[in-house]
Amino acid sequence: MNYHSFSDGELIYKNPLSQKTDISDWIQEGEIGIRELEGKLVFSHQRDALEYGDHAHWVLWCPEDFPDQIIIEWEFTPLSEHGLCMLFLAAKGRNGEDIMADVLPKRTGYYPQYHSGSLNTLHLSYYRRKHREERAFRTCNLRKSYGFHLVAQGADPLPAASDSESYYRMRVVKYNDIVQFSINGLPVLEWKDNGQNYGPIYTNGKVGFRQMAPMKAAYANFTVKKAILETSPSFK
Length: 236
Fold this sequence. Notes:
Protein name: DUF1961 family protein
Number of strands: 15
Pfam family, one: DUF1961
CATH architecture: Sandwich
Organism: Gracilibacillus halotolerans
Number of domains: 1
Strand content: over 45%
Mean pLDDT: 96
Radius of gyration: 17 Å
């Protein structure tokens, strides 16, 4: 597959994610375990996964509203074999509201509240190891919601947590109708939204992380930059 090429533009937002105070203004939905480790933040769960099931998971939102045509990057290290990690982007209320607007129902980290509730959002599952079938055939999944529509898949190149390197550089590009994801410079998936099959093309909105218990992972150096389109694929 041919991919679009993007370069970094102006820095819009930067957060080292190295200490708890770095996320003092981020919005937590669900109960999150947070600790500092060697210049990174380690996120885990506080609710027991067996006791609380799908209500043990959480979402953590960056408070900023981001425009379209952006590159989102962060460093990621899986610390447990089982669980799931996801990125939400271009998140808004279904009627265009800020996702923190009082008119929207309260959210607690329970997944249906995000994919079939009051939000429109894109969500990328980039570490899917929660269930046995996910570990047996590992993919990265991009969905468009409202509606939980699976729009793109790519092979997951990340190893088991026990074999992981110090960190992996995750990169998501949202540029008009294009969503692109790569890990350490390796293209994983790219999708072009036609604005018809699953509703209009999403543009600006909030970005957030999601984890499903019993996942434990380290994060650092979260940045959002303007995306500059360099080249488009040529098909012969």
